[in-house]
Amino acid sequence: MARTYTRARLVALVAALPLALLANSRASGQEPALEVFYTKLEPKEQFKYKWKGKEAVCSAGVFRWEVPQTEFGTNGLDRNFTGYCAEVLVPITADKMYRFRMNSIYAPSNYGLPDDEKGPAAAERRARYIQELFGRYYRDPITKSVNPDEAVAFQVALWELIQETEPAEGEPKRDLFAGDFQANYPKADAPAFVLKAQDYLDALTGNDALYYENPDLRGRELVRLMGIENADKVVAQSQFALRFVGGGGVGAGTISRALTAGSAFGTAGGGAPVGGGGFAGGSGGGGGGVIAGNPGNSTPNFPTTTPNTTTPVNGTPSSNPPTTSTSTPPVGGPDNPGDDDNPPGGTPGQFSNNPVPAPAGLLLGAIALGTIGSWRLGVRLLTSK
Prior knowledge:
Elements: H1 2-28, E1 34-51, E2 54-66, E3 80-85, E4 96-103, H2 119-137, H3 148-163, E5 181-183, H4 192-203, E6 220-228, E7 239-244, E8 305-310, E9 318-324, H5 360-383
């Protein structure tokens, strides 16, 4: 009788195993959205640039983010982390709550690349340069003193790697004084942080192995935090950040190459967003949302924003970066980015309808029912012999 009972339990366990594996794969493949509070941009500098000939002004620097205690998990990010802007034309305002979803740094849409046979290879090349930039020049601004010019230069160099248009042949030039994305200064009169950013770009060779040699990056993976619509119907600019390896469902236990849907990176103590506000941190609205004529810590006038639904660079209809109702360019980008002037960096909101993982109770209940049913069937089969 004891042997029969043991065999029945084994039959039940074998029958329940596929259900358990299915439930685990569904849960691990879907990372939940994360709400994060943007506190300030520090250090920061005003940066004048041109995108396809259109002049604009933004703040470049280090974003400072905080995951509130109401968020049970942090997807591998520290509660207080830094980031770098990944979308220079998308405005953003300090002291606001924004929502993000993890996205791979290798997604072609991050760089405005088409999803054709050339897109993935070009995206991987850009991601390789970005990882090399982090390997060579990233310094954790939370755990050590960081030179302000170097911190801002890091963000500006990152924008060049993300925003520059992909040529028909060859690689895009990494030149802040030529191409579609440019620093809007005569080279002889450019600020120190712009010249430093060009020095960073000139040193890049495409060797991302240097990423793993930087002690400030040990145990962390580079991700892209893709902005999605928050409670106020506003889409944040996406960020590059650092998180602990294995800290989230997607890409857990691997380097960020495993993140295939597009990603942002939050750093447990470091990181940086690309595209609209340099090193994470700073006071005021880094990368957008604050009037450019209101520098320092004075009370800014925040323009209202309204989503503009058009066709982005990659040709996929989605919600483009919000446009401002003011005539003065905000810190994060030009006044009214048009259909043809949106830069690479993703299409905010395109994944805002991501499926929500089923509650754990339902998955466990299904496993339990399957186990009980299989156990009863096994007992009947064995006792009938």
